[in-house]
Specification:
Blueprint lengths: L1 H12 L13 H8 L16 H16 L3 H4 L2 E4 L3 H11 L12 E3 L11 E2 L6 E3 L24 H16 L6 E4 L1
Parallel strand pairs: 1-4, 1-5
Antiparallel strand pairs: 2-3
Helix pairs in contact: 3-5
Amino acid sequence: MEEVALILLSLMLVTLKQCTVRLAQGFHNVAGEMDHSAYMAPEFFDAAITPPSWLATGRQSEEAVHSKGISKKIELVVVSPLLRTMQTTVGVFGGEGFDDGIKAAPLMTENAGESDHPAISSLNAPPFVAMELCRERLIETDEDTLWTVDVREANEEVAERGQKFLNWLWTREESEITVDS
């Protein structure tokens, strides 16, 4: 409990600005609305976002980030390695549509996660880091030996990982960081 109090005190001593961007709806959400048990189905574990969510992500990018100049201030984007989180974050904070004639690398390739979405450029986008510690649930290997259909990571384990993530975040030299998990 003392650690939690210290973390809260640390957060109060730092000036935080918040720009809230809603995580886009994934195919697992659509299935879960019809049958709650679908959230635990293996085929939805790393679900992509839906086509309407790509449209909403584009609107959020323009209305909440680019038009207000927020995109020019962000020095680092830290994102969970979940496909739906990366797609949402790249859609909101990424650069323009990718064109082979542009000398910048794609931030997201065309059809990533079978999304039928065009590539997104890294041009005029801040650096992105996919960070396992800020994930909502834990994957440690490609085989994902920790995940099973009927067992979730305990809240205590999520809290411990969150503490490790905050410790890592405090070491960063950037002052304008967005975290998307």
